[in-house]
Amino acid sequence: MSDIVKSLLSTAAGRIKPSPIREMFHLIRKPGMISFAGGMPDPDIFPVEQFHLGADILLEEGRDVLQYGVTEGYAPLKDFLSRWTAPKMGKEPSMDEILITSGSSQVADLMTRALLDPGDWIVCEETSFLGNTINMYNQGANFLTIPCDKDGMIVEQLPEKLSQAKSEGKKVKFIYTIPNFHNPLGCTMSLERRQALVKIAQEEGVMILEDDPYGCVRFEGEDLPTLYSLDDLGVVMYAGSFSKILAPGTRVGWAIGPKDLIRTMTVFKQGVDTCTSVVAQALVYKYCQSGNLDAFLPKIVDHYRRKRDAMEDAFKKYLPLEEVEYVTPHGGFFYWVTTPNILAEELFKRALEKKVAFVCGAPFFPNGGGEHSFRMCFTFASPEDTDRGIKALGETMREILGESKG
Ligand SMILES: Cc1ncc(COP(=O)(O)O)c(C=O)c1O
């Protein structure tokens, strides 16, 4: 960096951190690498032809679609989302309760801009989606973290942590949670904890950001109610996304929440990117409106269920199971694997030499921890690569265990 640029950087730029996972990507993207690292959908399941058929909208409505759009979002898509999300939301959200965003990560960005002053606090799961928490950190957030078990955030610990924070003069603005098929932990919050979480937020006067990109990717069991549907006081902002149920390249997501906060976030968005690409919104709308979203979703879920099963079969076939802990995820994209006698960093270094990549656990724990855990994405690699990659991981684990005993 030049001296001139250095001397001009803002205070915020002085403290920003890159995402360790994004930074890892050039390491991982080598030819021949079997990657369980990024949380990427399988491109084989992208509905390319059906998406392409919707492109006629550019001929039919090109003069509108190619123009600047309103910041609030493309009205036909908002109207579709109001109806499509109603069963999950417990009502048809009104147009002023919906904001179309550039991916659901923008919901987190705009909510942080709208609520946070530098130095304020956010509650989140002890390990969380770094893409969002790093952005929050870069905007000046501090974090209170609550650990998780297989039923998600241990909400029972929240009241004490909140009251302690209050007594120390810390201003907690919102609770950021991923209740369904958590990234990176794979766990899902139980109904009792959902109810308790909403009640606590209402009583304490803090907001909740319900981040739900994986909610529709459920392999078994019943859907649990959204936090949004359990709230009657307007404390929940719901973030949805087309990234995992259609394609992340669309960069179309949405926020559903109390209209005053949606309005404030909309004003921030005006200055961030004017509006989400109208071309992308119109193409997504055409795809959804033609019935493709509902027709394809079961196929996508089925496809990923088979991939999850292939990964677990390979775990059972190749890993030293007495040395490995994991919980089968009921949906989403990830296994969270713990190896009490193996450092994930060591496994990672050796696995890379065999052209196998995953994400180490430690970067998910900014305050330390996670050294013996790692995240495995099961959606991206082909079944053959999954088998070969996990065979290599199993061999590497045995090598390391053998050396530590010998
Ligand atoms: C928990 C979580 N939230 C948000 C996102 C970002 O989604 P989008 O592509 O809609 O911005 C991801 C992507 O991996 C995620 O795992």
Automatic annotation (TrEMBL):
Residues of the Aminotransferase class I/classII large domain: 59-393
Swiss-Prot/TrEMBL cofactor(s): pyridoxal 5'-phosphate
Quaternary state and interactors: Homodimer.
Lineage of producing organism: Bacteria, Thermotogati, Synergistota, Synergistia, Synergistales
Gene Ontology terms describing biological process: alpha-amino acid metabolic process
Species annotation: Dethiosulfovibrio salsuginis
CDD domains: AAT_like (cd00609)
Entry similarity comment: Belongs to the class-I pyridoxal-phosphate-dependent aminotransferase family.
Gene Ontology MF terms in the entry: pyridoxal phosphate binding; transaminase activity
The protein's name in its UniProt record: 2-aminoadipate transaminase
Keywords carried by this UniProt record: Aminotransferase, Pyridoxal phosphate, Transferase
Record-linked PANTHER family: AMINOTRANSFERASE, KYNURENINE_ALPHA-AMINOADIPATE AMINOTRANSFERASE, MITOCHONDRIAL
Claim: Transferase is one of the keywords in the record: yes
Transferase keyword on record: yes
Pfam families: Aminotran_1_2
